[in-house]
Design a protein that fits this description.
heterodimer, A: 189 residues, alpha/beta, Peroxisomal Thiolase, Chain A, domain 1, 7 strands, B: 85 residues, mainly alpha, Non-ribosomal Peptide Synthetase Peptidyl Carrier Protein, Chain A, globular
């Protein structure tokens, strides 16, 4: 399958890069993700309820799709969302565990629990953008370009998919995360 | 602190309503639906946990939720009448 990368976004706790160019950097004492949310006028209040994995995936996807331009939020089934990481939703899992660890303070938090699955990230992106194509979050034993390329190639094998929002979305704590996301397009030429 | 103000503060914290302050929440405004705070079904569950944890109130009948969580005022009235701590 002949494909081409249209745009890329890299997000770390220290900076944001778009198409290889650094466009924002963090300042000590601020919430970098909230800063980007406001800087890019994302206007999606649910952002504030998300766990860190969902936040980094959401912010990166918003920047990436804003860079792509064109009409958004129109239902479409020709775009897949295919993300990867190693630690799944471990941070949310751990946070939830703390809400049930003490038998005398046993108050399972529903709002934390909803994020104890990594594919909530792909779901949020699909819902936000009205994508109705394939949506998967795949766990890998380690970051592997080869394994990710193979999965993306498989996504293009159906008759509908013409582009894939894909990449590595890892967040092990509020201050330790790494996102490398890209838009891959089917290239028929 | 008045119970309504206390509830607003706890709600903002529990529901991560970062953009809001207690002053932004009208005592009588609906909490759910497009006209109010726009809370969802997960938020209802979180509010049920909030009442149990902070005021010792267990809501056994989910049907009660619609009346109890209609607004901050109805929540405060229910808490005042039923709290065990």
């Amino acid at each position: 399958m002949n494909t081409m990368v249209k745009h890329t976004v890299k997000l770390t706790p220290n900076y944001l890069e778009v198409n290889g160019k650094r466009v924002a950097e963090t300042v000590a004492g601020e919430s970098f993700l909230t800063k980007l949310y406001r800087l890019y006028n994302m206007e999606y209040p649910k952002f504030f309820k998300m766990d860190v994995l969902c936040k980094v995936g959401f912010v990166a996807s918003e920047v990436l799709l804003g860079t792509e331009g064109g009409e958004r939020f129109v239902p479409r089934s020709d775009r897949a969302v295919l993300l990867f990481n190693r630690h799944s939703s471990l941070h949310a899992d751990s946070t939830f565990q703390h809400t049930i660890a003490n038998p005398d303070e046993f108050y399972p938090s529903p709002s934390v629990f909803v994020y104890t699955l990594p594919n909530i990230v792909t779901g949020e992106i699909a819902i936000r953008n009205k994508y109705q194509g394939e949506s998967s979050f795949i766990l890998l034993p380690e970051k592997s370009e080869e394994a990710m390329d193979q999965a993306v190639a498989r996504a293009f094998m159906d008759r509908e998919t013409t582009s894939v929002l894909t990449g590595w979305v890892e967040a092990v704590s509020e201050t330790e995360y790494e996102v490398e996301m890209e838009l891959r397009m089917k290239n028929d030429e | 602190m008045e119970l309504t103000e206390e509830l607003k503060t706890k709600m903002i914290e529990a529901l991560n309503l970062e953009e809001m302050t207690p002053a932004d929440i009208d005592d009588n405004a609906p909490l759910f639906g497009d006209e109010g705070l726009g809370l969802d079904s997960i938020d209802v569950l979180e509010l049920i946990v909030l009442l149990e944890r902070n005021y010792g109130i267990k809501i056994a009948d989910p049907k009660q939720g619609k009346e109890i969580f209609a607004s901050v005022r109805t929540m405060a009235d229910y808490v005042a009448a039923n709290r065990t701590k």
